[in-house]
Amino acid sequence: MKITKEFEKLEKSAVKLTVTVAKEDVENAYKSVVAKYVKNAQIPGFRKGHVPANILERKYGEALKADTLSEVIDSSFGEVFNDQDDKAVNNRPLPYAQPQMEKLPEFDLTKDLTYTVTYDVFPTVENVSFDGITVKEPQVTIGDAELADELKNIQERNAMVVDKKDGEAAAKDDIVTIDFYEIGEDGKEVAGSKREDFTFTIGSGANLYKIDDDVIGMKKGDTKEITKTYDKDDTNDELAGTTKKLSVTVKTLKIRDLPAIDDDLAQDVNEKYKTLDDLKKDLTKNMEVAKGRKINELKQNSLLEQLVEKNAFDIPASMLAAELDGRWNMMAQQFQTSPAELEKMIVASGQTKEGMLEQWAAESEKMLKSRILVDNLLKEKNISVTPEEIEAEYGKIAEEGGMTVEEVKKHYDDPRSKEYLIDMVKENKLFDELYKQVKVTKGDKMSFKELFEAR
Questions:
Q1: pLDDT digits (tens, 9 = 90+) for 310-329
Q2: 180 near 249, Cβ under 8 Å?
Q3: Residue 439: in which H helix or E strand, if any?
Q4: Which of 156, 250, 397, 427 is the most buried (most CB within 10 A)?
Q5: Is 349 exposed, middle or buried (0-12, 13-18, 19+ CB in 10 A)?
Q6: Are 315 and 120 in contact (CB under 8 A)?
């Protein structure tokens, strides 16, 4: 098919494509459509497949033209992007954005056929500016205190939960189970406020009325009236500025029986550990790996956030809509339900799907822009990876994870996982180059725990 094409850039990563198809190709397409009609048409007085073309044209003229028009447009549009020239490659429509045609072209067998469509394309960002960007690298030291915290966490995870002795009072860190209800001004139970067998850890604040301190000292079987006044700026809007009177009954009191931090604990964690020192060495190594990954994540996020702010560009509405739709479907999967049922659940909770998507929009737009910048920079800098670099990454993952290289390779055996690994190595190479174009300085000193709370 002989065609000519012309691309015109529009705002917000849209493109106007004008395609012209030679009249000879239009004539051939028309003849082909007529031939199909002749083969299949059934008209009284004629045998199937023997209806004269001129009779078909009189009877089905508009349908023949419409079918030909559709076929010519579909074929020529596909042919435009079968070409591998730069213009076609760089102006491919987004897969989720349907090209729009303002009006159908005139069908005239004596003329070339010209039509115009507009559609969204993947955004490009040219001449990315790095001026004035500073990336701060958090300063984190892993020492005895950090190791002690990790051992304490392991100790608590391996604790046995046992009942406190009768007559012993509730204390901080005890696990308490209570019944409670609100008491109204008339001294009676407020309807709908009663809860039975509510369990929480004293001091965690994991209870609606924040009565941790008030239950300290109570014993199993005790009932107590508690009066609480809440600040006007309390985080719970229903409690802010109010005074509540509660009746609380302690039903059970339990404590965590912590094991000793010794060789036995290390062996309980994993049979590969023979001594506590073995566990400590592994913990220190794993913490160093986790620290490095988190610092790398924070540095990348900081750089991308500043690049997005410094290099303003628009993303197509269709791209944002597809991203939000994907997040909605993922949320439905997490709730193990369908998108339609999720919407009913959201409405029942007093919200709307539209409201939630609006809340997500700003964050999703930033994430999309970051991804677009990375993709553009990967192409601009022609970042690629060699088989040797992938082998080195296998070794690094094996070393950090305490696995064999063969185990790592098996994990990335399927094409999709292998592609993910290649993309990750490419991006790491890209960021190594980008850090040379910006100022990287030492950031604030922080603890291991604070590092993982940072965003």
A1: 999 999 989 999 999 999 99
A2: yes
A3: strand 439-445
A4: 250
A5: exposed
A6: no
